[in-house]
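Box S2. Input/output pair 1.
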Amino acid sequence: MPSPTPKNTSAATPSPTSRRRTWLITGASRGIGACIVEAALAQGDAVIATARDVAAIRQRFGERDALLPLALDVTDEPRARHVATAALERFGRIDVLVNNAGYGLLGAVEEATADEVRRLYDTNVFGLLNVTRAVLPAMRAQRAGHVINISSLGGVQSAAGFGLYCSTKFAVEGISEALHAELAPLGIHTTVVEPGYFRTEFLDGASLAVSPQVLSDYAASAGAVREAARRINMNQPGDPQRLAQAMMQLAASPAPPLRLPLGTDTLQAIADKHAFVARETAQWRALAASTDYPEPAGQRAA
């Protein structure tokens, strides 16, 4: 029986025999996640596309043999395990996991409530862990796979107004480094992707929470960032379609990097951060080195 024609595209659905990889992508209903889904399907891969609003996935991509849309709130660990099981039942394996689900929080560190911070970590950090733990048993069994964690320019360098969001991405960076060391001997790759500002809905209300408390003392720092976010929205320099194509190249690489910065703004942030750390370390090197136990006199002479 021929594959059904997608509702919103004239492109034919790739046949099962032409599929090269199977992707599981979270946060796939819009933004970067949806672009990655589109690119993977276009090159003949199979995709398990997940989001809290699964209807939005179906509306965007239609019905395809190569697509399995599933509802997933990443904070629900049993549901994450169910999604992994359903993916394996449908396609037999998971080659690439893209942990993309997440959202931003705009406001000074002091302005955010404890509840706002917990919700942010539940999605951006604990949700990522839920899905990763659900998928890794299959990747370990097949001794192959690629875990791609979407971090941010904010995982490279924190900033006023986005400090708590950036802290979740710093956590993703640390988790990814450990996964890289733990999974490489098992034939599984790990990459943390660090996009800069891309022209998606990230700065809209659907993907960005804004702390309602506003303290005037932060008007020149976090307050200025609030205003800048309004101006930047949908004027970001990054092209999400090109990002998606970069992800295809990343997944195809036999030796992918631990970190992949995307966008000239992220590249500049890395250069600025490294230069700052080098200057500050040089300035305080003597004090830093003075905290070791003194070496015994005989050992110094030797």
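Box S3. Input/output pair 2.
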Amino acid sequence: MAKRRFSGLASWLELRFWHHQRNAIAAAIAFYTCLPIPLGWKLEFEGIAKLAPLVGIFLGGLLGLVDWGLGLMAMPVLTRSALIVGLSIAITGGLHLDGAIDTADGLAIPDANKRLAAMQDSLVGAFGTMAAVMLLLLKTVALSELVDDRAFALMAAAGWGRWGQVVAIVRYPYLKASGKGAIHKASIQSAVALIPGAIALLGLSLLQVWLGGDRWLVGVGMALGGSAIAILTPAWFNHKLGGHTGDTYGAVVEWTEALLLCLLTALAAARPA
């Protein structure tokens, strides 16, 4: 009898664990994307930032699938790349790009004490516009230069970009008393939150190496370059602002994605013909 009760308790706990994981994943998708979530699912937002890299990998895979379909239609690679970059903005609702724009406007202010106020201004300034144009150009052109393994590149860029966001949350102070980013900082204090995303992203690189041939160079570049950019980008914003906000979290995602795509383009060009 006791053994049966223990087995029943273990099954109940296991069921609750998986329900919690499902609700957390659903909350992460609802927060970071515009994708629909079943109405009956409960959303548990606490600590969802640690799932952001996994959401990024999922989004990259989804974009890669769309890109593959467009390739079957014989759409030119530059047009495909522009559509994929535009679709990535649509799926995320421009969440991260908006943060990059506001951050650029804030950093353009010479007086460091007035930068946060400028970032909160809803009007888009000249520097924010230039940052948006540069990001979209870098992503589109870099992606258009990648002929092979485009889905891997999209997954790596989106995943490492969001892992960099978790680095910013864990490592640096939050500069505002409220805002979307405050809930992440309040619920994540330990570097343990970096582990799930790092494992998934390193697994993505190992898959590239396992596939063999000359893919090892890109696979290693994804791991070393992606992690380095994802660590250095939030460090730079912290240096300029003395901490982070929800806007800079978005800027970390966007600039890490763009820079990693540029790096992967260079690595792809260095592969033997």
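Caption for Box S3: Residues 2-32 form the longest helix (31 residues). Residues 70 and 76 are 9 Å apart (CA to CA).
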